[in-house]
């Protein structure tokens, strides 16, 4: 593989065997030139559609735009500058939005969790299609909510860049290129699971 290309597979040192679709998924900042078709998007949204949600409220809402469209530019304009530096490489941009109220008007504290389940379904479906997602917290959520005319009780939780794996490292800011090629890491299971009471990580030998 050429050194100026991103890795399609990254080193993922798992401690236990897991599905390849999960193991090989990662979040690139550059993408292949292959377009994401309307059929691809509908397949991804269909996967998300069948995610579980509290009381089956399905509080998720997705705004999407294909590169070159007005909606794409409107989403892009509300990304943090840090993310704009590389998200411009993405063929598709999304906003993940939740309704923070139940149908009866009560607070729905589970809505962000449910959107997370929606996007997890999308991510695994995308991986099976050779499509990558990079989810971003860096978005002006208040301005984006107003831009797309959602009610004030809704919340823009995330932005998402979508494209096929691939692309040139030269399209990524130099200070981020190492993250595109280096191994992945995660906390150990012992650091976040408890067979009983909470224990500070510092107390674990």
Descriptive report:
Keywords: Oxidoreductase. This is Nitroreductase. Residues 22-83 form the Nitroreductase domain. This protein has helices at 20-23, 38-49, 70-76, 81-87, 111-128, 141-147, 177-181, and strands at residues 60-66, 92-99, 131-136, 154-164. The model has no long low-confidence stretch (mean pLDDT 93). It has a four-stranded antiparallel sheet with strand order 1-2-4-3, with helices on both faces. It contains seven helices and four strands, in the order ααβααβαβαβα. Helix content is 29%, strand content 16%. By secondary structure, the chain is of the alpha+beta class. It starts with 19 loop residues before the first helix and ends in a 24-residue tail after the last helix. The chain has a domain at 30-164 and 172-179: NADH Oxidase. The chain is globular, with a radius of gyration of 18 Å.
């Amino acid at each position: 593989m050429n050194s100026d290309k991103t890795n399609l597979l990254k080193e993922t040192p798992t401690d236990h065997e897991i599905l390849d679709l999960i193991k090989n998924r990662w979040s690139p900042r550059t993408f292949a030139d292959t377009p994401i078709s309307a059929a691809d998007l509908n397949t991804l949204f269909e996967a998300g559609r069948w995610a579980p949600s509290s009381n089956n409220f399905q509080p998720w809402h997705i705004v999407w735009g294909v590169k070159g469209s007005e909606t794409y530019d409107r989403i892009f304009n509300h990304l943090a500058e840090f993310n704009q530096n590389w998200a411009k490489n993405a063929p598709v941009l999304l906003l993940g939005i939740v309704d923070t109220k139940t149908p009866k008007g009560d607070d729905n504290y589970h809505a962000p969790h449910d959107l997370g389940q929606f996007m997890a379904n999308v991510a695994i479906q995308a991986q099976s299609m050779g499509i990558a997602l990079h989810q971003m917290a860096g978005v002006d959520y208040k301005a984006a909510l107003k831009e797309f005319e959602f009610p004030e009780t809704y919340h823009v939780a995330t932005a998402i860049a979508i494209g096929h794996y691939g692309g040139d490292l030269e399209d990524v800011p130099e200070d981020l290129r190492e993250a595109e090629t280096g191994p992945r890491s995660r906390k150990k299971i012992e650091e976040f699971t408890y067979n009983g009471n909470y224990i500070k990580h510092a107390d674990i030998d």
